[in-house]
Structures are given as C-alpha cells and as structure tokens.
Design a protein that fits this description.
- The structure is a single chain.
- By secondary structure, the chain is an all-alpha fold.
- The protein is 66% helix and 2% strand.
- It has helices at 21-35, 41-54, 57-69, 78-94, 97-102, 104-118, 128-132, 148-167, 172-187, 196-209, 218-235, 243-260, 267-275, 288-308, 321-351, 356-375, 378-400, 409-427, 436-448, and strands at 311-314, 317-320.
- It has a two-stranded antiparallel sheet.
- A hairpin with a 2-residue loop joins strand 1 and strand 2.
- Helix 11 (218-235) runs antiparallel to helix 12 and helix 15 runs antiparallel to helix 16.
- The longest helix has 31 residues, at 321-351.
- The two termini are 31 Å apart.
Length: 462
C-alpha cells in the first residue's frame, strides 16, 4: 500500500481493460456542451445508460450525480462542475474499475456535486462507501460481550482523546495514537474474522500508515467519531454492528489497496478484505521510479494491443481480443474449480463437515471476479465477488459451528447458475446478462445470515 505523500496518480491505467466507448463519447459531448453553455443532460443520460449496461455501477452513480446537479451548475459552481466532468472523463478512459470506485479525487467531486444538490433537497447526503461499494453486499459483523465497567472506562478514555482529533489540535497526533490503542484493545486476542473491532483496527492502521488521519481527512474523522457511537451501542448490549459502520470502515480499508495494490506485508489486510468480499492486486507502485517503470510497460502493452487492431464487442463493452481470450481461460478454470468445491461444500454442510471446500469455492469465485474486473466485465465481477463472499461465510459458519451464520443455500446456487450463464454468453461473444436479480437475492441471503441477533431495534440495521 502506498502513502498519500507519494508523487503518483491515484491509480495506474489498465491498458488491456475494456472500454465503454458510448459513455466516453457521451461524456466528451457533455464537456463540449458545457463549454458552449448548452444543455448536458442528454449526453449524461446516455453515458449513465451505457455504464449501467456494462455493470460499472460506481461510474453510473457518479454520472447520475452529474445529471442531478446539471440544472444547478451555474455561476460560481460551474467551474467545479466542469472540473468533475473532466476528471471523470479522464478516469473513464484509464479503464481501471477500482480507480473509478475508490478515487479520492472522484469522491471529492461526488461529494461536492451532491452537496450542491443538497442545497435544494433536504436530508441529501453521501459518504465514501456509497461510491466505493456500490452494488456490493455487506457481511454482518459482531460486537463481542464485554465487562460494563471495563467498557465504560475505555469509552471515557476514548472520548477524552477524540476531541483533539476532531478539532485538529496540536496534540492530535498523540490523541490519535490513544484512539488506535483503544480500538486495538477492543478487538481482543482471538482471530474471529467478523469481529467488527478487528475490522476497525485494520482500518485505523491503514489511516495511520497512509497519513490520512494525520492530515485531517474528513473520512478519517468520521471513522473515529463513528467508533465512539459503536462503543455506545456495545455498552447497551448490542451484539450486531450497524451495517453502515461496517461499510464505512471497509471502504476506507479497501481504498488504498484497491488503488495501489498490496505488498507481501499487507497479507493480513488482504485476507480481511477477502472476508468481506473484496479483492486487490498483488503489486505496488509506491515510488515514482516503480510507477514510471510500470507506466512504460503499460504503454508498450497498450501499443502492442492496439497494433493487433482486433477487438470484440460485448454489448456496450469493447475488449481487446487477446485480453478476452486470456479471461476465458481464467474463467473456465475458475468455474470448474467453483463447481467441484461448491458441490463438496454443500455436502460438507449437510454432513456437518469443516469449511475447507467452501473456502476453496470462495477463492475460485474471487479469482474469477478479479479477472472480470480487470477486463471490465462489471456484472460478472460483482456477482463473482458476491458469490465468493457467500462461500466465505459458509466457511466461517462451519468454523464457528453455527449453520445459521451461512447464507441460504438456494440463492447461492442461483448465483452460481446465473454466473455460469453469463460466462457462456461472454464466450459466445455476447454481453453478459444483467446481474441485478441474482445479485439482489444473494445480497439479501448474505446480509440476513447473521450469527447473533441484537437485543434492541438497532439490530434491524441488517
């Protein structure tokens, strides 16, 4: 993972990734229309439609924000609107789906766009996870029982350190270290994959390493304030962490790994991200030299790819034929492994066996999801990652001996069937079908399969 101090762009271009040419052309038209002080809504709606069909849901959400704010993009706000349009168009041409979801620059624009809409619509607010985790399910996370006296003392200590961090006082550095120590202490000594304080500890470490907490990043401040609210819920005996907190912490943890990749020392964080249905690339561009070397190789690969002059159109998505053939090989091997491991996992569940087969099925689904994301097949990537998460939850349920913590079997089977059908269409040269229905059913199954239930109304957050 890299630091924000590194002199690098937010993510590297993906030269073998798919293009949504219709969206790129529509955004170019919208830029020209904005410069000419003409209406931009028509081109933006065409871009949003093409991105939705491609399964680039974060990009579609950004485009929707542009559409909503277009009527209010006048006077002083017009330069900011145009800057958002330019940066988004540039990011879209880099064809890196993780950048489009996790870019702090794009989220800064997204927040500003929605703030402008919010001036005309009450109660309209957005958060980073709204963009970063668009269309992705959230695994339930738990709060461990704790001694009321010990928890009260720790919360008093936490609140004492929180104020300097939120206000940016000179002693904020020492106070932040105190907050991180409190969070780490709450995680406990065991390795429960879905202990929410384990997720919070990893998120706090990431914010410390990348320097965002030290620099007063608004999302970092929001994270520490939310941890205080989570402590209050734990003190009231709540056993299930709010879904909103899980998504916020997960998005912050994923952000830099998604943009820059992971190194060997990040293995624990990558495993935790896998527990929640997210994957990263195993490379890093943390220095100017390493980035320059990568970009040179990327430029050569792009030139070689364009020299082939052969692309394949899969609905709105245009893919390089060599990258397409490589993907089909990966997908074939992953689906074969997923079928074998999935059948074994279901048999193990019925017989009360361990979760090894479910873990193998999860890894096969994640490999497929990562390959689909690299190629630009958004619908396939989202469904494959969600299926990987479902199997990861099956492995966890077997580990803790609570079958009710596993998602319902039928939606998992339906998702596997839908994924297979999508890949058959891709292999035949057609666009994959929309993932919305099987993804919604699988998301519901994952988020309802909680290992514990909270005693109060807050447990309805899932």
């Amino acid at each position: 993972m890299t630091s924000v101090d590194s002199p690098s762009i937010e993510a590297l271009p993906n030269p073998r990734g798919a293009a949504v040419h219709e969206a790129e052309a529509a955004l170019a038209e919208a830029r020209q229309a904005s410069d000419a002080q003409m209406t931009v809504v028509g081109p933006l709606l065409r871009a949003a439609q093409a991105l939705r069909q491609a399964g680039w849901l974060a990009s579609q959400r950004f485009t929707d924000a542009l559409v909503l704010v277009a009527p209010f993009a006048t006077d002083d706000f017009l330069p900011q609107f145009r800057a958002a349009l330019v940066d988004f168009h540039g990011a879209l041409t880099r064809r890196n789906l993780r950048e489009l979801a996790c870019s702090p620059t794009l989220f800064g624009h997204y927040r500003a766009l929605n703030a402008q809409v919010g001036r005309h619509t009450r109660g309209y607010a957005v958060a980073f996870e709204d963009l970063a985790l668009a269309g992705r399910p959230s695994a339930p996370a738990t709060l461990r029982p704790a001694s009321p006296l010990a928890l009260a003392a720790l919360r008093a200590r936490y609140e004492h350190a929180l104020l300097p961090v939120l206000k940016g006082h000179e002693e904020a550095g020492a106070a932040q270290a105190e907050l991180d120590d409190c969070i780490a202490g709450l995680a406990g000594a065991d390795t429960d994959a879905y202990d929410v304080w384990r997720l919070a500890t990893a998120c706090a470490r990431t914010l410390r390493v990348n320097g965002r907490a030290r620099m007063g990043d608004p999302e970092a401040k929001r994270f520490y304030a939310r941890c205080n609210l989570l402590l209050a819920e734990q003190a009231r005996g709540q056993r299930l962490a709010p879904r909103s907190f899980v998504r916020a912490a997960l998005a912050l943890l994923w952000r830099d790994y998604a943009l820059y990749g992971a190194a060997a020392e990040d293995a624990d964080a990558v495993t935790l991200l896998n527990d929640y249905g997210l994957t990263v690339d195993w490379h890093i561009a943390a220095t100017q030299a390493s980035q320059a070397a990568w970009e040179q190789g990327a430029a050569e690969a792009e030139a070689a790819a364009s020299g082939e002059g052969v692309t394949r159109e899969l609905g709105p998505v245009s893919v390089n034929v060599l990258a397409y053939e490589d993907f089909l090989q990966t997908a074939d091997a992953s689906m074969a492994a997923l079928a074998v491991s999935g059948d074994a996992a279901l048999a193990a569940v019925a017989g009360g066996g361990d979760g090894a087969a479910a873990e193998h099925a999860a890894q096969a689904a994640y490999r497929l999801g990562a390959a689909a994301q690299a190629l630009g097949l958004g619908h396939v990537a989202l469904l494959a990652d969600a299926l990987g998460l479902a199997w990861r939850r099956h492995a966890y349920a077997a580990q803790i001996g609570l079958p009710q913590a596993a998602p319902a079997q039928r939606p998992v089977e339906q998702a596997g069937e839908a994924l297979r059908a999508m890949l058959l269409r891709v292999a035949a040269g057609f666009a994959p079908s929309d993932s919305a229905v099987p993804l919604a059913l699988l998301t519901q199954a994952i988020e309802r399969a909680a290992p514990v239930a909270g005693p109060g109304p807050a447990s309805s957050g899932y």
